[in-house]
C-alpha cells in the first residue's frame, strides 16, 4: 500500500500523557500503557480511535478503567480500531512482546543481552498500541521493572523520579521526561553496562551530567566520544544559540543496530561503531565518524526533538538540517576543506546515483510504501545541500535570523518543510517560493557553461544553461534556483574584481573577488567588465550547489586551477575532473584496442602536487586520490565494468611505478615525522597519515619491492589502526603468500574486538582477487560471521556488492545470484537491512545487455518469493519498474 503526502490528515485524538510500565523478560515482556486521549476540535463525535500496532500479543484494553470487549474493537494487521470512545478518556492497553526473538532490531530488542529500543520511524507500534505518528506528542513517564542482578542499569528518557527494590527482589525505576515528544523518540535501555561519566556547564550556568554507557569490556574506548559530545554542546550554544534542556544526557552503545545512531530524547542509542575508539582499534576515519555522529545526534535535540516533523514525508526537515549542522561543526573542528571534499564525495558516490536511478525521489518525497526505505542519501545529504544553498543565497546573518525565528515560532511543534522555509522568508522579508522547488523536484540538475572573452571590449561572458532530466513520476521540471559561488582568476593566479555590466559601482557584490551568481532560469548569462585578459573562471566554489557542472574547461585550464585556484575545494575539483577525463580516454583506448599511455601532462601535474612541500598533506592526499569506481560509473551513460577497473588500475600502477622514488621519499619523510609520537586525532597528524597511506597505496599498486616492504613493516609495527590498516590494504591486493599471513595475524590479534573484526571482513570483501566471490562465500562460513549483526552483514555482503565491482559484476553472473540469495535470507530476519542490500542492483539498466539480463533475473527471482517484507518489495518493484 502506498502512503501519499496528499492524503495527510491530522489525528482525530491527541495524547497529552502516557504512562508506560515494562516488566522486562527476554521472551515475554509485559507492557502496560496508560494514556490520556482527547478528541481534537474539528473531529467527528463518532470518529473511531485508530491505534498502530504490529507483532503484539494483546492482553487487555480498558477505557477509564472499564474493560473494552472485542465487540468494540477491530484488530487488523497493523491496527487497532476502537469505536464509540468518549471525547476525553484514559486508555490502558496491556501487550506482551518478545525482545529476544526480535531480529528486525526495531521496537524493543536485545543486543548481547542488553535490552534496547529503536523506534524511529515506526518501531513504537511494536511495543504497544498507540498513534505511532510524529504529530502526536505526549509527555512520557516510564516504569521499568527488572532483576537488578541481571540488569543493573535501567534507563529511559528524562530524569529518574523513583527507584526502589521490592521484597520480590525486583527493582522498579521510574523515569519522567518533561518535554512532550512523538513516540519515535521514546527509548528504553536495560542491561549490564559500564558508565563513563563527565559533566558540562551550559552557557547559562546549568550543570548537565553526561553519561556514556558501554559494555564493561569497552570501558577503555569512551574518551573520544565523550570529548566529542562536550564539543557539540558548546558549539550549538555559540553557532545557533541552542542550549541543552535536561539535567542528564545519556548515550548507550550497542553492537546490533540497523543504522548509525538514534537521537531519542535525553537517551541516544548508538551503533557501537560510532562510539568506541582507542588508537589501536579505530582509524582516523572512525574517530572522525564518531565526532560527527555524536554531534549529529546531539544537534537533533533542537532540530528534530524540540521541533519535529509533522509526518514522515518531512523527514529532511530534521535530517537535512541536522546533517548540515553536523557538516558546519565538523568544518569548524577538522580541516574545513577536507571535510567539504568528503561531503561531496559522499554525495556523488551515493546521492547522484540515487537521483539518476529508479528510486529517485525529491528531498521531500510525496509517496512511500515503507518509510524505512526513505532514510536515503537524498533526504540526508542532498537535504543538507539544500540548507547549505539557502545559507549561501541569503548569507550567514539572514540564515541565523531565519533559524532564530524557526526555533521561536515552532518550539514544541511538529511541522513541515514549508514552515521551515517560511521562517527564513519571514525573518528576512524574502520570497523563497522558487527555491522550494529543491524540496519537490527529484534529479540532479546539469549545468553547462559557455564563456566568451572579448579582449577589445574587456568583457567576459559566462552563460549557464541548466537542464533537469525527467525522473520517475516527474516528466516535466521547472528550472531550479542554483547559487554558483564564482571567482575569475587572473594569469598570475590572483582573483580579479568581478564587475557586472550595467551594475552600479555600489551594488552589494560589485567588484568583489568572489560572488554568488544566482541561476534561476534555464539560461542565465553574466557579462563581466574591465577584463582585458581572459581570466580562468573558478565556478561552483566549495560545491555551492548539488549539480553536475560541465565547465568545458581545457585541460590546460584544469591544470592551472589545480595549481592556482585559491579555493581549496576547486583545486581538488580540478584534479578530479582532470583525472576523470584521463580515465575516460583510457577506457576509450581499451575499447579500441589501443595501447595505454598515461599522459605526460597529467603525470607532471601529479608530480608538482606531490613534491610541493608548501601544500597541506591532507589536501595533497585528497587531490591525488582518484575518483572511486562508483562515481566513475556514474559519469558513464553505459557502465563499462572492465574498462573502469582496468583504466583506474592502470593509472594507479603507472603513477606508482613512474613516481616510485618521489613516493618513497615522501612516505619515509611522513613516517619519520610520526615516529615516536603518541597517536592524536589532530588535523595535521591525520593529514600526514592519510598522505603516507596514499603513497603506500600507489607503491602497492605498482607492486615494487620497496613499496611492499614498507607496507609489511607498517602493518607489523604500527601502533595505531590507521597505519596498520594502510599496510593491510596494500597487502590485501597482493598474492596469497603475502596477503594471507597478514589476514591471519590480524584476526588472531583482534578476534575479540568486533569492530576490528568488521574491518577484517571488509578488507577481504573488497580486495581485488580473481576468486573474490568464493572467498566471500568461505568467509560467510567463518565462525565470526553472523547474519544477525548488521555491521557484519555490511562489512562482508554489503562491502562486496557495493565496493568490489570485479567480484560483484563478474561476467558469469554469480555475484548477482549471491546477492539475491542473501537478500532473501535476510528478509526473513531483518527487512531494513535486506532492503539496503538491494541498492547495488538499482543501476542494472546502465550495464551491458548480458549483465542487465542477469541482474533483472536476480531481481525477478526475489520478487517471485511469497511473503516479502514491504521494505524489500518496494525496493525491488521500483528497481524493476
Ligand atoms: N534519526 C536517526 C539519525 O539520523 C536515524 C534513525 C533511523 N532509523 C531507522 N531505522 N530508519 O540520526
Ligand atoms: Zn539524523
From TrEMBL:
**Catalytic activity field:** Release of an N-terminal amino acid, Xaa-|-Yaa- from a peptide, amide or arylamide. Xaa is preferably Ala, but may be most amino acids including Pro (slow action). When a terminal hydrophobic residue is followed by a prolyl residue, the two may be released as an intact Xaa-Pro dipeptide
Domain spans labelled Peptidase M1 alanyl aminopeptidase C-terminal: 555-881
Q: Which residues form the Peptidase M1 membrane alanine aminopeptidase domain?
A: 225-437
UniProt domain Aminopeptidase N-like N-terminal: residue ranges? 19-185
Spell out the molecular function terms from Gene Ontology: alanyl aminopeptidase activity
If you read the UniProt record, what top EC class would you report for this enzyme, in one word?
hydrolase
Q: Where is the Peptidase M1 alanyl aminopeptidase Ig-like fold domain?
A: 443-551
| Record key words, sorted | Aminopeptidase, Hydrolase, Metal-binding, Metalloprotease, Protease, Zinc
- Which SUPFAM superfamilies is this protein grouped with? Leukotriene A4 hydrolase N-terminal domain (SSF63737), Metalloproteases ('zincins'), catalytic domain (SSF55486)
> InterPro entries, from UniProt?
Aminopeptidase_N-like_N (IPR045357), Aminopeptidase_N-like_N_sf (IPR042097), PepN_Ig-like_sf (IPR038438), Peptidase_M1 (IPR001930), Peptidase_M1_dom (IPR014782), Peptidase_M1_pepN (IPR012779), Peptidase_M1_pepN_C (IPR024601), Peptidase_M1_pepN_C_sf (IPR037144)
For the keyword Methyltransferase, the answer is no
- A Pfam family recorded for this sequence: DUF3458
Entry superkingdom: Bacteria
Name the coenzymes or cofactors required: Zn(2+)
Q: EC?
A: 3.4.11.2
**Recorded family membership:** Belongs to the peptidase M1 family.
Protein name in UniProt = Aminopeptidase N
Q: What is the name of the gene encoding this protein? A: pepN
Amino acid at each position: 500500500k502506498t502512503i501519499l503526502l496528499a492524503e495527510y490528515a491530522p489525528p482525530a485524538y491527541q495524547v497529552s500523557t502516557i504512562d508506560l510500565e515494562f516488566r522486562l523478560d527476554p521472551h515475554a515482556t509485559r507492557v502496560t500503557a496508560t494514556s490520556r486521549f482527547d478528541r481534537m476540535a474539528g473531529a467527528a463525535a463518532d470518529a473511531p480511535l485508530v491505534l498502530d500496532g504490529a507483532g503484539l500479543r494483546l492482553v487487555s484494553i480498558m477505557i477509564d478503567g472499564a474493560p473494552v470487549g472485542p465487540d468494540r474493537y477491530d484488530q487488523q494487521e497493523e491496527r487497532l480500531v476502537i469505536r464509540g470512545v468518549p471525547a476525553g478518556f484514559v486508555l490502558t492497553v496491556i501487550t506482551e512482546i518478545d525482545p529476544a526473538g526480535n531480529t528486525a532490531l526495531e521496537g524493543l530488542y536485545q543486543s548481547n543481552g542488553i535490552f534496547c529500543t529503536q523506534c524511529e520511524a515506526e518501531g513504537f507500534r511494536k511495543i504497544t498500541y498507540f498513534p505511532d505518528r510524529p504529530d502526536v506528542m505526549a509527555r512520557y513517564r516510564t516504569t521499568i521493572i527488572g532483576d537488578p542482578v541481571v540488569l543493573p542499569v535501567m534507563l529511559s528518557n528524562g530524569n529518574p523520579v523513583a527507584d526502589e527494590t521490592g521484597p520480590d527482589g525486583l527493582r522498579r525505576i521510574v523515569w519522567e521526561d518533561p518535554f512532550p515528544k512523538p513516540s519515535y523518540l521514546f527509548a528504553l535501555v536495560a542491561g549490564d553496562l559500564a558508565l563513563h561519566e563527565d559533566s558540562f556547564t551550559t552557557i547559562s550556568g546549568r550543570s548537565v551530567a553526561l553519561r556514556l554507557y558501554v559494555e564493561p569490556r569497552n570501558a577503555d574506548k569512551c574518551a573520544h566520544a565523550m570529548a566529542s559530545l562536550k564539543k557539540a554542546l558548546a558549539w550549538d550554544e555559540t553557532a545557533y544559540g541552542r542550549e541543552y534542556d535536561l539535567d542528564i544526557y545519556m548515550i548507550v552503545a550497542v553492537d546490533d543496530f540497523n543504522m548509525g545512531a538514534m537521537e531519542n530524547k535525553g537517551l541516544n542509542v548508538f551503533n557501537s561503531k560510532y562510539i568506541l575508539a582507542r588508537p589501536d582499534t579505530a582509524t582516523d576515519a572512525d574517530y572522525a565518524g564518531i565526532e560527527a555522529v555524536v554531534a549529529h545526534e546531539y544537534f537533533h535535540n533542537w532540530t528534530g526533538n524540540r521541533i519535529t516533523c509533522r509526518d514522515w514525508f518531512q523527514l529532511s526537515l530534521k535530517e537535512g538540517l541536522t546533517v548540515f549542522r553536523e557538516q558546519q561543526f565538523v568544518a569548524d573542528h577538522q580541516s574545513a576543506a577536507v571535510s567539504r571534499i568528503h561531503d561531496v564525495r559522499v554525495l556523488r558516490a551515493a546521492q547522484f546515483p540515487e537521483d539518476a536511478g529508479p528510486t529517485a525521489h525529491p528531498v521531500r518525497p510525496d509517496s512511500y510504501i515503507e518509510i524505512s526505505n526513505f532514510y536515503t542519501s537524498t533526504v540526508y545529504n542532498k537535504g543538507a545541500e539544500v540548507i547549505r544553498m539557502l545559507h549561501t543565497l541569503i548569507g550567514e546573518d539572514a540564515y541565523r535570523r531565519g533559524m532564530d525565528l524557526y526555533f521561536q515560532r515552532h518550539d514544541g511543534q511538529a511541522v513541515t518543510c514549508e514552515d521551515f522555509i517560511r521562517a527564513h522568508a519571514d525573518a528576512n522579508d524574502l520570497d523563497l517560493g522558487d527555491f522550494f522547488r529543491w524540496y519537490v523536484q527529484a534529479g540532479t540538475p546539469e549545468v553547462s557553461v559557455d564563456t566568451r572573452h572579448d579582449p577589445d571590449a574587456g568583457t567576459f561572458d559566462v552563460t549557464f544553461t541548466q537542464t533537469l532530466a525527467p525522473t520517475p513520476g516527474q516528466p516535466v521540471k521547472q528550472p531550479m534556483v542554483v547559487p554558483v559561488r564564482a571567482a575569475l582568476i587572473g594569469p598570475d593566479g590572483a582573483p580579479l574584481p568581478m564587475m557586472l555590466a550595467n551594475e552600479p559601482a555600489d551594488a552589494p557584490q560589485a567588484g568583489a573577488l568572489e560572488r554568488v551568481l544566482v541561476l534561476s532560469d534555464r539560461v542565465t548569462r553574466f557579462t563581466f567588465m574591465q577584463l582585458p585578459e581572459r581570466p580562468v573562471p573558478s565556478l561552483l566554489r566549495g560545491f555551492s550547489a548539488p549539480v553536475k557542472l560541465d565547465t568545458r574547461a581545457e585541460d590546460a585550464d584544469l591544470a592551472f586551477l589545480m595549481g592556482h585556484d585559491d579555493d581549496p575545494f576547486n583545486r581538488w575539483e580540478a584534479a578530479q575532473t582532470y583525472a576523470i577525463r584521463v580515465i575516460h580516454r583510457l577506457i576509450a583506448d581499451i575499447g579500441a584496442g589501443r595501447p595505454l599511455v598515461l599522459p605526460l601532462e597529467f603525470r607532471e601535474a601529479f608530480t608538482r602536487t606531490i613534491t610541493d612541500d608548501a601544500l597541506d598533506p591532507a589536501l595533497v592526499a585528497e587531490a591525488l586520490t582518484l575518483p572511486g569506481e562508483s562515481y566513475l560509473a556514474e559519469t558513464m551513460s553505459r557502465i563499462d565494468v572492465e574498462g573502469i577497473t582496468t583504466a583506474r588500475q592502470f593509472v594507479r600502477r603507472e603513477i606508482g611505478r613512474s613516481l616510485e622514488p618521489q613516493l618513497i621519499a615522501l612516505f619515509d619523510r611522513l613516517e619519520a615525522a610520526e615516529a615516536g609520537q603518541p597517536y592524536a586525532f589532530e588535523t595535521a597528524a591525520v593529514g600526514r597519515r592519510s598522505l603516507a597511506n596514499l603513497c603506500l597505496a600507489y607503491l602497492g599498486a605498482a607492486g615494487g619491492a620497496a613499496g611492499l616492504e614498507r607496507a609489511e613493516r607498517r602493518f607489523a609495527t604500527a601502533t595505531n589502526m590507521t597505519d596498520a590498516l594502510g599496510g593491510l590494504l596494500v597487502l590485501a591486493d597482493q598474492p596469497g603468500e603475502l596477503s594471507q599471513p597478514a589476514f591471519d595475524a590480524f584476526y588472531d590479534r583482534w578476534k575479540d574486538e568486533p569492530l576490528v573484526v568488521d574491518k577484517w571482513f571488509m578488507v577481504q570483501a573488497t580486495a581485488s582477487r580473481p576468486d573474490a566471490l568464493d572467498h566471500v562465500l568461505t568467509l560467510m562460513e567463518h565462525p565470526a560471521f553472523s547474519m544477525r549483526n548488521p555491521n557484519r552483514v555490511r562489512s562482508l555482503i554489503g562491502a562486496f556488492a557495493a565496493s568490489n565491482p570485479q567480484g560483484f559484476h563478474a561476467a558469469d553472473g554469480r555475484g548477482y545470484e549471491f546477492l539475491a540469495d542473501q537478500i532473501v535470507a535476510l528478509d526473513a530476519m531483518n527487512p531494513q537491512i535486506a532492503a539496503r542490500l538491494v541498492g547495488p542492483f538499482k543501476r542494472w539498466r546502465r550495464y551491458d545487455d548480458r549483465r542487465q539480463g542477469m541482474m533483472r533475473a536476480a531481481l525477478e527471482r526475489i520478487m517471485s518469493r511469497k511473503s516479502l517484507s514491504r521494505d524489500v518489495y518496494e525496493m525491488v518493484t521500483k528497481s524493476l519498474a
